[in-house]
Amino acid sequence: MLPEVILEFKKQFPSMLENELLSKHTNMRIGGPAALFFSAAVPGDLIKAVSLARSQGVAWTVLGGGSNVLASNDGFDGLVVQPAFRDIKLRQQTVTAEAGAITSSVARQTAEAGLAGLEWAVGVPGTIGGAVFGNAGCYGGEIKDNLVSVDCLRLSDMKPAVYPAADCGLGYRTSRFKREPHVILRATFKLTPGDPEQLKHRIEEIMRQRKEKQPLEHGSAGCMFKNFIFKDEGELDRLKRDVKNIPAQMLERKSISAGWLVEQAGLLGEKIGDAQVSDKHGNFIVNLGHARAQDVLMLTSKIKMKIRDEYDIMLEDEVQLLGF
Ligand SMILES: Cc1cc2nc3c(=O)[nH]c(=O)nc-3n(C[C@H](O)[C@H](O)[C@H](O)COP(=O)(O)OP(=O)(O)OC[C@H]3O[C@@H](n4cnc5c(N)ncnc54)[C@H](O)[C@@H]3O)c2cc1C
């Protein structure tokens, strides 16, 4: 980025950081420097910074908690904005969380207040903005189930917009925000009354299961691939021929776990550099210490090729790339 452009940003936003390592902001602990990094305390500052980037022709992107991102070791020659507005407001059975609110805090606070619906999210790292972006979900719940509306900045006309949930295009790990550029500013959810003690137990149980099943001791970006959803009986017959012993619950859900496929293909523990397929969970690639983004990408492509060749299934990425 040109020095005079950097100066212009720094003049307007003195707290903006230069050459900030993205590895400090991603759960994978991988990523080179962002030319400019701005943690915006209020939505207005974030909007101003994005407007300036657009007027200066500077590439920019939003980073939430960095828990679903693989950032290039070459970094990002542009502006990374991070919503640091994290307010969570409860009103009767409604909760409104700003984009930077930590998803697990929203889950805990609502459960403590006797509101049911977001307990599943207690172990999902990152922010509400990121969770809405990818329609995060697990343990039988997803953002879509309780979302009422999303307030955002629409990039096509740089206008604020409020979308009811039905207009957010939410589906399995997807939303309209993946297809049309927006900055998510806050999200509102409608919950139902629940017993705080029961909700607390549910949360504890979810956390226990996560610790048991996921390699939380290492950096990762969560699930690397989407599960494979099959569409019709014809495809099911074909799968039953190609993939042996598919568990009944996957057949019922019409969704074959990508982690299970990786395990069946004998890829647990597979390693390139310091990037390794977790031996606890086949859909996690962990950073053993000094993994590079290229190692992770080579490993994901090795997995995809093997699954394609053995099972005729093309796995889709769940993780988002930054700086490639
Ligand atoms: C250990 C572990 C476990 C996980 N378990 C789950 C799970 O059970 N279920 C699940 O769904 N996911 C899971 N994930 C993945 C990840 O935590 C979720 O996708 C999470 O919601 C991402 O939020 P984030 O704030 O970290 O987003 P980031 O990783 O920072 O960003 C992800 C994408 O969202 C975009 N984005 C972020 N904030 C905004 C915003 N305000 N406006 C517009 N775009 C935005 C970014 O540009 C990027 O493209 C897991 C990850 C880890 C590391």
Q: What secondary-structure arrangement, pairings included, does this model have?
A:
Layout: H1 3-12, E1 17-21, E2 33-40, H2 43-56, E3 60-62, E4 69-71, E5 76-83, E6 88-91, E7 94-98, H3 103-112, E8 115-116, H4 128-133, E9 137-138, E10 141-142, E11 147-154, E12 159-164, H5 176-179, E13 182-190, E14 192-193, H6 196-213, E15 228-229, H7 233-242, H8 248-253, E16 255-256, H9 258-264, E17 271-272, E18 275-277, E19 285-287, H10 293-311, E20 320-322
Parallel strand pairs: 2-5, 3-5, 4-20
Antiparallel strand pairs: 1-2, 6-7, 7-13, 8-14, 9-10, 11-12, 11-13, 15-16, 17-18, 18-19
The structure holds flavin-adenine dinucleotide (FAD).
Flavin-adenine dinucleotide (FAD) binds next to β3, α4, β9 and β13.
Task: Offer a concise description of the structure.
This protein is an alpha+beta fold and 324 residues long. It is 32% helix and 25% strand. It has helices at residues 3-12, 43-56, 103-112, 128-133, 176-179, 196-213, 233-242, 248-253, 258-264, 293-311, and strands spanning 17-21, 33-40, 60-62, 69-71, 76-83, 88-91, 94-98, 115-116, 137-138, 141-142, 147-154, 159-164, 182-190, 192-193, 228-229, 255-256, 271-272, 275-277, 285-287, 320-322.
Could you name the key traits of this structure?
single chain, 324 residues, alpha+beta, Uridine Diphospho-n-acetylenolpyruvylglucosamine Reductase, domain 2, Uridine Diphospho-n-acetylenolpyruvylglucosamine Reductase, domain 3, Uridine Diphospho-n-acetylenolpyruvylglucosamine Reductase, domain 1, five-stranded antiparallel beta sheet, four-stranded mixed beta sheet, 20 strands, globular, binds flavin-adenine dinucleotide
